[in-house]
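>> received
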Amino acid sequence: MASDIAVIGLGVMGRNIALNLADHGFQVTLYNRSWQKTQDTLQRVTAEQRVVAVKTLAQLCDSLNSPRIIFLMLTAGPAVDAVIEELLPLLDKGDVIIDGGNSNFHDTQRRWERLKQIDILFLGVGVSGGEEGARYGPSIMPGGDSAAWPLVKPMLQAIAARSEDGEICCQWVGEGGAGHYVKMIHNGIEYGDMQLIAESWQLMQSLALPEAQIAQTFATWNEGVLQSYLIEITAEILQVKDSDGRLRVHSILDSAGQKGTGRWTAIDSLQLGAPLTLISEAVYARMLSAIKSQRVKAAALRDRPPATFSGDKEAALNDLQDALYAAKIISYAQGFMQMHMAANEYGWKLEYGNIALLWRAGCIIRSRFLKHIKQAFERQPDLENLLLDEFFASTLHKAESGWRNSCILGIQQAASMPAMTSALSFYDGYHSATLSANLIQAQRDYFGAHTYHRVDKPEKMVFHTHWLESAEEEQVDD
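>> returned
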């Protein structure tokens, strides 16, 4: 019997995707350049699962039903291109290649355009949920060639996560690189969420709260509006101790790694002109953490007594809960704003409410909060920014006092909180009908004759002031 699908790349994610497919009754062909990894996967196969192992790509293609469906779970970059090139001579028109790795959406767009010309259907599919999600139900964000979606939909939706109310966390995103773009934004928001939680933890420590109380605070928060996977695991992490009784987290080097998707999100925001301040600060915070040796030297040069706190600690925690929730809203608002701008730039038709549903289960940023995003786009399908929605505007207004108090406290305690404070600055700027950019534009006109518009004249009219001479103003051609 021929296989329904093949999986190439049997690392942790690829192996678990293959086993997940087999769990749901699909016959799966396995291939990895290292036969040892193939054997490792075979050892996990149960008697009920239908799995075929092959040693060559030719054997893999011969094992599949037509049209062939091949799922690549490879390290993003040249490896994906190399395997595609090896596969092409073995494929027929109408066969499907799925890239389920963390590929850059520009690469996905390029591959889609090229393979479309030779009638090979290419999909760039974002997969989130880590090792456990891949095995038992990830969030899946498919994009690429729309003609391939009906062919793979039954398989991908079968293995995807489901929310508490039964929604399948796998729906069509859009053509070209749209699927991997949405996954990139997901990962950017993930960077922001993690940084905000870490900053909150740091501020709690500066208040000299008992470690058990800090862990319990996160556990309590997970029962309310902040309920999410990342808050849940934070509460668990902060209870694990080494044999000496010290929290394990304190023995972990404070240098955070990254694989690139957060940085890609920040770079794309600059190219689009999207003010992605919070997520960009989260990326920079990881970069700052990585220069550990310099930070140690600098700390030795700063003569300051340790911060003390004599205020109401319970009130401070309540403020911090509001601050974390408010900043989290800003993180998502900026991410969805960037997707809106990208859709206009790249010609995609993104369903933003459905994207929120994709993230309700299976993925790293899954949370109760996402249902409110879905509802916001149901109320206003053309919503430009979540901050313009009545629910989010009201929620932020209620949280604003605690948010400001927490940022002030962080400054007083010398706790580095770049994401939390940049979120508040964005909130203030976004809600300002008038900003200080008029002075910047005057400066630009002064030293570079870059011209400006006037608030009391039609926007099409352009002006320049002769600042160094008479300070006279003249209208100039646009």
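>> The chain is about 50% helix and 10% strand.
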